[in-house]
Design brief:
Layout lengths: L3 E8 L30 H10 L3 E7 H10 L8 H8 L1 E5 L11 E3 L4 H10 L4 E5 L2 H9 L5 E7 L19 E8 L5 E7 L9
Parallel strand pairs: 1-5, 1-6, 2-3, 2-5, 3-4
Antiparallel strand pairs: 6-8, 7-8
Length: 201
C-alpha cells in the first residue's frame, strides 16, 4: 500500500499560503507571499530533500500544479531538485483542467477521494502532496493521509490559508521525528493515530 504524505511549509501561526514568492498566490488579497526564504536555512533544505527519498510521485491540486508546471520545466538544471521534480510522476486533482502538459503528469478522473484510494492501492512508492491546501483538506476529511511532514518556520503573519483550517477533523498524531534547525524551524513528521483523547487536570 502506497502512503499519502502531506508535505507542507507553515508559519508559526499555521499559514501555508504562498511561501515561495509574492506572486505565487495572492488570493483573498494575501500580501505576505514569499515569507519562507527569509527564515529558511540549509538544514531545512536537507530535510525536504529527505522527504523525497522514498517517494516517486506527487499529488497536486490545480493551483500548485500550475505554479510548478510554469517553473520547474525551465528551472536551473544545477538545482538538485530540478531533475527530480520534472521526472517524478504528477497526479493532478482538478475540476477545471481538461489536460496536463508537464512531463509525467496525469489528470485524475472522477471523484478525487475514490481516485486517491485507487492510487494508494497501486504499485509504487509513496506519494507526496505538496502545497495544495484544498486538496489536502479533502484527503483529511476522507481519512486518506498517512503522514504529515511539516516545516514550521519562526514567523507569524496573521492571515492566509491554513493547512488545518476551521472544520478540520479532530485527529491524534503520533510523532515520528521532530527536530529544530539552527534557524529555529521545527521539522516535524507525524502520523494520524485515531481520535484525540480528552482528560482534565
Amino acid at each position: 500500500m502506497r502512503k499519502i504524505i502531506v508535505c507542507t511549509f507553515l508559519t508559526l501561526d499555521g499559514v501555508m499560503q504562498a511561501p515561495g514568492g509574492p506572486d505565487e498566490d495572492a488570493e483573498s488579497g494575501f500580501t505576505h507571499g514569499g515569507w519562507q526564504k527569509p527564515v529558511d536555512d540549509d538544514e531545512v533544505g536537507a530535510a525536504i530533500a529527505g522527504w523525497y527519498e522514498h517517494s516517486d510521485a506527487m499529488l497536486l491540486g490545480r493551483k500548485t500544479y500550475e505554479i510548478f508546471a510554469s517553473y520547474w520545466p525551465t528551472a536551473d538544471p544545477g538545482n538538485p531538485f530540478t531533475a527530480r521534480m520534472n521526472s517524478m510522476h504528477k497526479y493532478v486533482a482538478s475540476r477545471t483542467l481538461t489536460s496536463v502538459e508537464w512531463q509525467n503528469s496525469t489528470l485524475l478522473a472522477g471523484d478525487t477521494a475514490d481516485a486517491v484510494r485507487k492510487l494508494k492501492a497501486s504499485d509504487g512508492g509513496n506519494i507526496n502532496v505538496v502545497g495544495s491546501g484544498d486538496l489536502a483538506q479533502t484527503l483529511m476529511r476522507h481519512d486518506l493521509v498517512d503522514e504529515y511532514r511539516l516545516t514550521i518556520h519562526p514567523v507569524i503573519i496573521g492571515t492566509g490559508k491554513r493547512l488545518f483550517a476551521d472544520g478540520a477533523i479532530p485527529t491524534a498524531l503520533e510523532p515520528v521525528s521532530v527536530s529544530t534547525t539552527k534557524g529555529g524551524t521545527v521539522v516535524g513528521v507525524y502520523r494520524p493515530n485515531g481520535k484525540p483523547n480528552y482528560d482534565s487536570y
